[in-house]
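Morning. Coffee machine broken again, so started the prediction first thing and wrote up yesterday's gels while waiting. Chain of 322 residues, entered below exactly as on the submission form.
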Amino acid sequence: MEPVLRAPLNIEWEITRACNLQCKHCYTSAGKKEPKELTTEQVLHIIDHLDEVGISDITISGGEPLLRDDLEVIVADLTQREIPFALYTNGTLLSRERQVSLKKAGVTVFSLSLNGTSKETHNFIQGANTFQTIIKRIAQLKKNGFYVHALYTLMKANLKEASELPSFMDDIKLDALCIYPFYPTGRGADHLTDLQAGGEALYNTMNALLKDKRIYLGGCLRDIFSPSLIKKTPCGRLMCLITSEGNLRPCNFLPFKTEESLLQKDVYTLWKSPVFEKVRQWQKTVDRNCQTCEYVKTCRGNCLAFHMPFLSEEEISNFQSG
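Came back before lunch.
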């Protein structure tokens, strides 16, 4: 079916663009905090609005969410409202003290970045010596009673190691693993040679990994890759992203955002904004000879983020224009 919703069901919230790492594949080019990053009061105000709208769930991401010292206040509010949420973190700042305070606030599940089964591969992608820290954090979290899963972006640099993931999960006692294909956006667009895997190899790797019930496909391709209630990508149809300044983007992998934020307009109005309508229209009319593209099995021709490197500057600017 082609759902026409008044507002999104699922929200990813880029709660900050600040980050202590410079990962090569980062789709938001995270690093510096935005000058107009939402304050605690503004975040809570938006949560109140989303609660009234009836949002199904919220994924808190970044940047690095743990760089916000009010994170416990934010998740405690979500917990009190009984809004399901997930917390994505690179794990490096997840000290024992922070684990305790976040648990008190209501966090029961952690999603950590893991991009290799060897320290050489993981550290190369993350741009820092973080592999042993992540393995240590997983062990600590498990001991403290948390459900722990990891986020693994499939790319040229780590694709061969991906076959080792099921046994590696056993070794480190990881509960689940979310795999993503590499999206050529943000900082990742500057490292295509190292990161962009061939389409056939990417598709075959996904198929093999998804046979393990602990491993699942994340992002909008989850509904394209497997049987779904909708015909095309859910981005801008069922879900969207809130930026650290409160604007909406149709997808976490797309740079296009609404001119106004949730501090100025309600989610119903922003959901109908020109940038969302243009993305939806593109999804309906796209005809780019997809059957000859090596990634057609993966994106089904519907994922605009996969198409970004092949669009002209004029086409790209058209999405952001009024």
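The beta strands are 10-14, 57-61, 85-89, 109-113, 147-154, 176-181, 215-217, 239-242, 248-249. Going to sketch it on the whiteboard this afternoon.
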